[in-house]
Design brief:
This is Dehydrogenase. The longest helix has 20 residues, at 303-322. A nine-stranded mixed sheet has the order 13-12-11-10-6-9-8-7-14. The protein has a five-stranded parallel sheet with strand order 2-1-3-4-5, sandwiched between helices. The chain has helices at residues 15-22, 53-58, 73-82, 97-109, 124-134, 161-177, 261-264, 281-293, 303-322; strands spanning 4-9, 28-34, 63-66, 86-90, 114-117, 141-149, 181-189, 199-206, 211-217, 224-231, 234-239, 244-250, 268-273, 326-327. It is an alpha/beta fold. It contains nine helices and 14 strands.
Length: 328
């Protein structure tokens, strides 16, 4: 079978990595690149860089990747859908819920694969975590808490930390728990002099009853990408910065120190850091997109799922503004 012809719109900080991976995976051929801003990282090579989405479409594509700023997602995606091109857009799906809804409808109505690049879902630690939760290794899941903190990214100017970073945690939490969000309450802070928030905390509950909590900011001098899942038999900690997964088991050894029993609650048990294959998340994401286009089983993040994630983020921002919880 001939390789799928793929085009890439946007070769900035993220787009350059898409270009590299698209050139490396089987079954696809990167045939064209477009970016109105040129090629700052020199990834075009022999392809050069076309000026806009219209020129990209004219090359003739089976599938495309959109890695331009969020405010441009809708325009590019709708033009690609009209041209019959399966499309993966970077997260978040769009700058607004109305725009996201138009994108979902455009691809679904034409029977095209529309996907969103929530790459953390493809992190090896998250995938191993979901596999073990599905196998019942934690028993009942009580709580999922995430921490995503780092320094300020000057390249992000059109959205706040909620849409840029919290969307990662919302998608991966919903995915590993296999449940949508039911309600959220959030608070935000604006400390860097920009119109968008640079800190957000979100607490809430999933439809299946799991309590969730997300701490996200661009104001920390250290980088942290942690997901903590607590349940009946202990706690999993996934570090998506390193791809590591560790299990802290509840203790089973009786506590003989009588005076300490009332204060201990769950006791400490064995600690296990698992060994498993660690593949690059972006490569796994592109393979899932390719497989979805080919009609094979795939865990690709659909535009409908990306739209739900955006709805949760927007709900959290509304909650922070109004000082009240938001239900879905």
């Amino acid at each position: 079978m001939a390789a799928l012809r793929v085009g890439l719109l946007g070769v900035g900080m993220m787009g350059r990595h898409h270009a590299r991976v698209l050139r490396e995976i089987d079954g696809v051929e990167l045939v064209a690149i477009a970016d109105p801003g040129g090629d700052p990282h020199g990834v075009g090579g022999d392809l050069g860089v076309l000026p806009d989405i219209e020129a990209l479409i004219e090359v003739g594509l089976d599938m495309a990747v959109v890695a331009v700023p969020t405010r441009f997602h809708e325009d590019a995606a709708l033009k690609l859908a009209a041209a019959g091109v399966h499309t993966l857009v970077e997260k978040p799906i769009a700058h607004s819920l109305d725009a996201g809804a138009r994108m979902v409808e455009a691809f679904e109505s034409r029977g095209l694969v529309g996907a969103v690049g929530h790459v953390e879902r493809f992190n090896p630690a998250v995938q191993e975590l979901r596999r073990r939760l599905e196998a019942g290794e934690l028993g009942d899941v009580y709580q999922i808490a995430t921490r995503r903190q780092s320094t300020f990214p000057a390249r992000i100017a059109d959205v706040g930390v909620g849409k840029d970073l919290a969307s990662h945690d919302i998608d991966l939490t919903s995915w590993v728990a296999q449940s949508d969000y039911a309600a959220v309450f959030a608070q935000t802070a604006f400390k860097s002099g920009r119109e968008h928030e640079d800190m957000i905390t979100i607490t809430g509950r999933l439809a299946n009853g799991i309590i969730v909590n997300h701490l996200v900011n661009w104001l920390s001098p250290m980088k942290e990408r942690i997901t903590v899942v607590t349940g009946d038999r202990g706690t999993f900690i996934a570090d998506t910065a390193t791809g590591d997964l560790t299990f802290y088991a509840n203790g089973t050894i009786p506590l003989e120190w009588e005076s300490m029993r009332p204060f201990r609650g769950v006791s400490e048990g064995d600690i296990t850091r698992y060994a498993f294959a660690k593949r690059e998340p972006l490569r796994v994401e592109h393979e899932a997109f390719r497989d979805a286009v080919l009609g094979k089983p795939s865990d690709v993040v659909t535009m409908a799922q990306g739209q739900h994630t955006l709805a949760v983020v927007e709900g959290a921002l509304d909650s922070a503004s109004a000082g009240a919880s938001v239900a879905f």
